[in-house]
Amino acid sequence: MRLLVALLIPFFLFFTIGRPIAGIICLILQLTLIGWIPAAIWAVYALSQYNTDKKIDAIKSE
User: pTM for this structure?
Assistant: First the structure.
């Protein structure tokens, strides 16, 4: 579900993963039609980093 959000509404994804400043920067980038593609790529990358961090935290807590 978050991947779909990352592609359609990139700036909103940053708010869902707890990075509001990045979300505001992404919104500014996303306001241009050309900036939408880099914003979506950035959001997908941030989502993959977030998922990786969650897996590492789960391993450390074991």
Answer: 0.84
